[in-house]
């Protein structure tokens, strides 16, 4: 069971959390202006990287907050968690000095 | 039979004799014995039959690595545990154990014919032999083979025992309570760290429990063990867990331990858990899991009486049991001499010590020579003889050219093997640590760590006691330090006088030219021979992972504890490649088998999942209601009167509602209170419908889409105040809807000042539906004008009922005049009772979810999740009316104009009027264009709702049909299991009171 | 309408108190419970009305009869005697009238049990994954977490006394699990 650092409550067992899909996929301010191709990409196209993946989690059985997380999909190590709305961290910087 | 092989000494309690039975014969042992030691004391070596060849097998080892002596222990009450290692089964008064995998008796097993047929049964035999005829594998061969080859039988009865669970946290977890583990635990504990020390045995001490010559801090090793345990016990921050196996090492230092609490007791108290699962999160871990001695691979090495030298020494010193009187040792390791010396002193005759090494040296060899034991350097055992018990060996001399020549036979009743020790790296490997191959010593030892752990002692390939203790101590200090505890300057325990492991051998031992008749086993539990490994390489398997699967070596519960290194060395030799390049198989958890009970813990029966009951559940139960599961809820399904079938009950309930009225427990309905100045705007964005202009006191139906435009939930939303809405949703959808709303609120619509609170359980909900509904509730309600003018359909008022505050909704899911009375949950039952008392004056009934389904289907009201499947849009449902056209945006709106979602041939909800009014199709039945569609042709849709409507006197059906909304009056066919598809006409999905006159009554 | 002046009887779902080995279970009496959501300032205002301090993250502030439990960065659970429910709700709404917030009565949504005794932490550790050592979970700490498969709010009131709050329909499961756990201590 992973230990996940909730930005509000600190490290908590994985079972308290729900996965929320890829992070930093912004909904257009005015969807009506988005063409079909871009809207389809927004709805369905998601990254599946080998390595660092930015994803959303919710501390569902805790404070209830959604937050973002950078996880290495190779080692399953969560490199960083941060509050929703905070800027996406620099991937290269996150991965240096990370031992799985 | 007398326990004639019992000698003096050992840690058994002679004041506490125990009688037990094995295969029906009663024997005597003592407290402190294992089943294996007690049987050996009685001269019983034959304890099992092998997996495939049904060869007679005795005990090989003295601990968890035992591959042969697997037994089933039974107790009363249906308790039966198969595949227990006799070496780990603690003796208790009345213990009943049975051997396994035998046909008739252990001594005479007709399955042993497989042994003679051996050449046919080599590796890959199953794959090759049972190919034809097609289908015979599953029906004929597999059941036969499974009966002939296998381990113990699964228990037939429900497990009557109780299993406990414990989540635990510590600074330092020490796995293994031998010398390294004890030193580590002590060092860590002395620095103040919270320590858990777990060991699979009943006593801590590991190898020291059989130690005779070594001293630690100038006291006998076993005295040091006692003192150390006492010191640890005195520290409140230390948890000592004997009889506890660390079986799995998971991510981020999360480890699984299973504690066997009562298995060693003759009469376990029923109030106590049998086992306890410990789920431990450790800041730091010390792996002190020791090492396991390797067998040597030669013909007949599996005969009863052939065992590991370390095991014989443990039986002798710890249990006071001589494994034989005329003993031959076959060794490549100095530590075997300690066994020879101890057995010699205990009265055994050492017939020979055949040492593979041409010039063996070391303290053990020196001591043996001094005791005038027959040390034979450069000697191999070519073969062991005897069927049910080893009775002799053929010796071979290794010449200077390396060739082996037969060197005569010797009789014996026990043959001890010492091929060196393999560090127990299972947990390290499970932690994803990288193993390093130590070329000189031919062993894999822990290399790069991935998690916060370190190994010490035998697990790390360290075998001299002084070094083991120093390493354990250092590991314990290091772990505590890294967990934030600065160690005081305690010194490591000092040891001397032991005869450490030195030397070893991997692979098949040298043989005379031309080979030897007889089977030389590598993996005893899976019956894999040296020749099988070679055959696998000849078949073209190059990786040990493939060799493993082809031969089954290292698989199953054993996980290659005694066999991995020999198998690997033989494969490497056959492939002529360096051993590390052939690779090492992955060690799978659990280290030793774990019961299902311990994993399940409390999660069984009523506690498997929360069972949610409404405040009115008790009433329904008293009325004899049948219940159905909806999510975690129990909902009253129908209320059958004595003698009534379900169908009859549902017909009666539906007719009563239409004629007079019915009461329905709607408490499970999901509810969220949406509050804040932007509440209406929030609902505008989350639902298709507009809410800005909804008046206080009025309700509106809400349809919720996901961003892809598909219907995900629906419900009635009432406005209680400008800034306060009472939002309802489907029973099963409540958690999902709240998460969906929170998601948008927290991450997309962060500009809105609005907050959500689940109120599902704040309110019990009593639905009163039917023409008499108003008359029923009127006498109980205060402060609310119930007239149609003051309180029209889709309105909500607050007041009191039976003196209790209520949110009273005028809503309907039946098409009748209806109210839903919300009262605080603790009052739910009392208010229901009062309403019921009123209702009985009007000759009405309570109805369940089945009648509710029929009533709503008669009106064409959808159920999300039944008439929708996650790919259905509002237009597909013919519910464009629910979309607020003037709203610039809501979740899912943009998707509704995507090209895929406006295609004309999408599955669309329609009504289906069957030609035969008595035909009630199965839900899920396919909708096809002709009565007998060609095989392989596609369906046009499926039935989503289908009921027998009593009020209409015919079936009512809804389904999703391709392009259905433009196909009104067309005939389609609905498949049935009992004949050709039957015709039905596509109609509007509303069957009863299409103008809604009853609703507004 | 209006002939009814009767008062419906209130029925708790909680079983009566019982002592297990080393730990006593007690149902917590009916209370007024409100969920307060909004900014931290909203909670400070509410706390002032109640006469308590605004609790910090993962903490409860309380006096003998009332408490504010931190639930999340914009969510608090207010506990007070049942008799104060109506008046307190009014006082809070009055004080908060100018500040955007949500105040919702959940007096019947939640129920609570009290566990007290030297075995209380061990009993809770049968189903709670968190470290309940006093160093990690000190007196005054509160959090939502899981007890088995049920969402709960745990509040440590004293070294050996816990207040465990859950939704009404989960209570039989939570208490059943406690009962089963008590067998395995």
What order do the helices and strands come in, and which of them pair?
The complex is a heterotrimer of chains A (100), B (1001) and C (185).
Chain A: E1 3-6, E2 10-13, E3 18-22, H1 36-44, E4 52-58, E5 66-72, E6 77-83, H2 91-95
Antiparallel strand pairs in A: 1-2, 3-4, 4-5, 5-6
Chain B: E1 13-22, E2 25-31, H1 35-41, E3 48-49, E4 56-57, E5 70-74, E6 80-85, E7 96-99, H2 113-116, H3 125-129, H4 136-148, E8 163-175, H5 179-190, E9 195-198, E10 215-216, E11 219-220, H6 221-233, E12 238-241, E13 244-250, E14 254-260, E15 275-287, E16 291-293, E17 306-308, H7 309-317, E18 326-331, H8 336-345, E19 349-355, H9 363-370, E20 375-377, E21 379-385, E22 392-398, E23 404-411, E24 414-418, E25 421-423, H10 426-430, E26 435-438, E27 443-446, E28 453-455, H11 465-482, E29 495-496, E30 521-523, E31 528-529, H12 530-538, H13 544-551, H14 564-575, H15 579-582, H16 596-600, H17 617-622, E32 626-630, E33 633-638, H18 646-659, E34 662-665, E35 670-675, H19 679-686, E36 699-705, E37 711-721, E38 724-729, H20 734-747, E39 755-758, E40 763-769, H21 773-777, E41 781-782, E42 795-801, E43 804-810, E44 818-824, H22 828-840, E45 845-846, H23 849-858, E46 907-914, E47 926-928, E48 941-949, E49 954-962, E50 971-976, E51 979-987
Parallel strand pairs in B: 1-7, 8-9, 8-15, 9-12, 15-28, 17-24, 18-19, 18-24, 19-20, 34-45
Antiparallel strand pairs in B: 1-2, 3-4, 5-6, 5-7, 10-11, 10-29, 13-14, 14-15, 16-25, 21-22, 22-23, 26-27, 30-31, 32-33, 34-40, 35-38, 35-39, 36-37, 37-38, 40-44, 41-42, 42-43, 43-44, 46-49, 46-51, 47-48, 47-50, 48-49, 50-51
Chain C: E1 18-20, E2 23-27, E3 31-38, H1 40-50, E4 60-62, E5 67-72, E6 75-81, H2 85-95, E7 101-105, E8 110-116, H3 120-124, E9 142-147, E10 150-158, E11 161-167, H4 171-183
């Amino acid at each position: 069971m992973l230990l996940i650092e909730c930005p509000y409550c600190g490290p908590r067992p994985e079972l308290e959390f729900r996965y929320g899909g890829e992070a930093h996929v912004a909904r257009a301010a005015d969807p009506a202006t988005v063409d079909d191709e871009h809207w389809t990409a927004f709805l369905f196209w998601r990254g599946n990287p080998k390595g660092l993946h930015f994803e959303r989690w919710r501390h569902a059985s805790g404070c209830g907050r959604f937050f973002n997380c950078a996880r290495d999909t190779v080692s399953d190590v969560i490199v960083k968690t941060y509050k929703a709305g905070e800027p996406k961290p620099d991937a290269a910087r996150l991965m240096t000095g990370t031992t799985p | 039979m007398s326990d004639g092989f019992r000698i003096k000494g050992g840690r058994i309690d002679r004041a506490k004799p125990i009688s037990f039975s094995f295969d029906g014969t009663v024997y005597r042992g003592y407290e402190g014995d294992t089943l294996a030691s007690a049987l050996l004391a009685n001269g019983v070596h034959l304890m099992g039959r092998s997996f495939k060849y049904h060869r007679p097998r005795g005990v090989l080892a003295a601990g968890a690595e035992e591959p042969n002596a697997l037994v089933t222990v039974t107790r009363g009450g249906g308790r039966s545990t198969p595949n227990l290692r006799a070496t780990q089964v603690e003796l208790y008064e009345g213990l009943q154990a049975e051997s396994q995998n035998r046909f008739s008796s252990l001594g005479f097993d007709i399955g042993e014919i497989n042994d003679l047929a051996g050449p046919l049964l080599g590796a890959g035999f199953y794959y090759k032999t049972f190919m034809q005829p097609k289908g015979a594998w599953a029906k004929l061969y597999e059941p036969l083979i499974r009966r002939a080859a296998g381990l113990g039988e699964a228990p037939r009865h429900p497990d009557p025992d109780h299993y406990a669970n414990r989540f635990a946290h510590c600074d330092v977890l020490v796995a293994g309570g031998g010398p390294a583990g004890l030193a580590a635990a002590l060092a860590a504990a002395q620095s103040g760290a919270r320590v858990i020390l777990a060991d699979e045995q009943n006593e801590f001490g590991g190898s020291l429990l059989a130690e005779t010559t070594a001293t630690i801090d100038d006291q006998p090793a076993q005295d040091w063990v006692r003192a150390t345990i006492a010191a640890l016990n005195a520290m409140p921050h230390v948890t000592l867990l004997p009889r506890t196996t660390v079986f799995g090492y998971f991510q981020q230092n999360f480890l699984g331990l299973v504690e066997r609490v009562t298995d060693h007791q003759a009469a376990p108290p029923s109030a106590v858990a049998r086992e306890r699962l410990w789920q431990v999160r450790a800041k730091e871990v010390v792996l002190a899991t020791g090492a396991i001695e390797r067998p040597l691979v030669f013909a007949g090495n599996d005969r009863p009486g052939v065992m590991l030298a370390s095991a014989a020494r443990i039986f002798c010193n710890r249990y006071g049991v001589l494994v034989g009187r005329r003993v031959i040792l076959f060794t490549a390791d100095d530590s075997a001499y300690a066994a020879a010396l101890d057995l010699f002193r205990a009265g055994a005759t050492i017939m020979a010590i055949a040492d593979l090494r041409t010039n063996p040296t070391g303290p053990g060899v020196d001591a043996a020579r001094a005791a005038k034991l027959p040390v034979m350097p450069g000697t191999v055992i070519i073969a062991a003889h005897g069927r049910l018990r080893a009775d002799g060996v053929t010796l071979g001399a290794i010449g200077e050219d390396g060739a082996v020549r037969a060197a005569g036979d010797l009789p014996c009743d026990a043959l001890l093997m010492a091929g060196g020790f393999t560090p127990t790296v299972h947990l390290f490997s499970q932690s994803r640590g990288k193993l390093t191959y130590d070329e000189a010593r031919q062993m894999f030892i822990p290399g790069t760590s991935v998690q916060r752990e370190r190994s010490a002692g035998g697990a790390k390939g360290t075998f001299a006691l002084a070094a083991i203790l120093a390493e354990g101590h250092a590991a314990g200090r290091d772990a505590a330090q890294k967990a934030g505890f600065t160690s005081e300057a305690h010194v490591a325990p000092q040891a001397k006088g032991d005869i450490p492991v030195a030397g070893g051998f991997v692979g098949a031992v040298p043989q005379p030219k031309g080979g030897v008749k007889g089977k030389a086993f590598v993996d005893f539990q899976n019956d894999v021979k040296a020749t099988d490994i070679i055959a696998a390489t000849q078949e073209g398997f190059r990786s040990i992972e493939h060799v493993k699967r082809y031969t089954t070596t290292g698989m199953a519960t054993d996980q290659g504890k005694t066999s991995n290194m020999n198998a690997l060395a033989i494969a490497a030799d056959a492939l002529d490649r360096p051993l590390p390049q052939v690779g090492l198989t992955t060690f799978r958890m659990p280290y030793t088998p774990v019961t299902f009970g311990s994993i399940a813990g409390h999660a069984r029966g009523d506690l498997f999942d929360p069972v949610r009951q409404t405040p009115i559940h008790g009433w329904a139960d008293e009325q004899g209601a049948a219940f159905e599961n909806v999510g975690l809820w129990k909902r009253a399904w129908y209320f059958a009167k004595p003698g009534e079938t379900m169908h009859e009950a549902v017909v009666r309930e539906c007719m009563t509602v239409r004629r007079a009225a019915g009461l329905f427990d709607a408490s499970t309905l999901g509810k969220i209170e949406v509050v804040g100045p932007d509440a209406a705007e929030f609902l505008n964005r989350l639902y298709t419908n507009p809410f800005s202009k909804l008046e206080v006191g009025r309700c509106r139906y809400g349809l919720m889409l996901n961003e892809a435009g598909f219907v995900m939930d629906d419900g009635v939303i009432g406005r209680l105040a400008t800034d306060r809405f009472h939002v309802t949703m489907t029973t099963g959808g409540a958690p999902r809807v709240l998460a969906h709303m929170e998601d948008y609120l927290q991450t997309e619509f962060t500009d809105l000042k609005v907050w959500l609170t689940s109120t599902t359980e704040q309110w019990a909900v009593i639905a009163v539906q039917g023409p008499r509904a108003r008359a029923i509730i009127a006498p109980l309600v205060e402060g609310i004008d119930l007239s149609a003018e003051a309180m029209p359909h889709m309105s909500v008022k607050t007041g009191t009922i039976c003196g209790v505050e209520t949110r009273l909704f005028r809503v309907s899911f039946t098409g009748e005049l209806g109210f839903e009375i919300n009262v605080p949950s603790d009052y739910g039952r009392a208010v229901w009772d009062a309403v019921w008392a009123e209702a009985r004056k009007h000759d009405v009934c309570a109805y369940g979810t089945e009648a509710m389904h029929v009533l709503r289907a008669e009106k064409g009201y959808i159920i999300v999740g039944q008439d929708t499947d996650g790919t259905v849009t509002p237009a597909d449902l013919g519910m464009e009316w629910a979309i607020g056209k003037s709203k610039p945006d809501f979740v899912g709106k943009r998707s509704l104009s995507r090209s895929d979602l406006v295609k004309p041939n999408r599955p669309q909800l329609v009504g289906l009027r069957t030609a035969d009014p008595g035909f009630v199709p199965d839900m899920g039945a396919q909708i096809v264009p002709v009565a007998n569609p060609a095989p392989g042709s596609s369906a046009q849709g499926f039935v989503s709702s289908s009921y027998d409507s009593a009020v209409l006197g015919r079936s009512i059906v809804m389904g999703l049909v391709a392009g259905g909304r433009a196909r009104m009056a067309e005939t389609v066919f609905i498949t049935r299991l009992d004949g050709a598809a039957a015709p039905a006409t596509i109609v509007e999905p509303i069957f009863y009171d299409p103008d809604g006159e009853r609703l507004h009554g | 309408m209006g002939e009814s002046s009767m008062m419906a009887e209130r029925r708790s779902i909680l079983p009566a108190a019982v002592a297990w080995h080393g730990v006593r279970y007690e149902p917590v009496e009916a209370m007024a419970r409100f969920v307060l959501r909004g900014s931290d300032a909203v909670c400070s205002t509410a706390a002032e009305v109640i006469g308590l301090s605004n609790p910090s993250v993962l903490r409860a502030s309380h006096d003998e009869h009332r408490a504010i439990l931190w639930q999340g960065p914009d969510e608090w659970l207010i506990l007070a005697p049942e008799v104060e429910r109506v008046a307190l709700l009014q006082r809070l709404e009055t004080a908060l009238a100018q500040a955007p917030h949500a105040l919702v009565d959940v007096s019947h949504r939640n129920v609570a049990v009290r566990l007290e005794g030297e075995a209380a932490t061990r009993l809770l550790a049968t189903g709670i994954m968190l470290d309940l050592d006093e160093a990690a979970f000190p007196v005054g700490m509160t959090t939502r977490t899981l007890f088995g498969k049920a969402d709960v709010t745990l509040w440590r009131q004293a070294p050996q006394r816990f207040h465990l709050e859950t939704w009404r329909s989960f209570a039989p499961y939570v208490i059943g699990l406690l009962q089963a756990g008590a067998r395995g201590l």
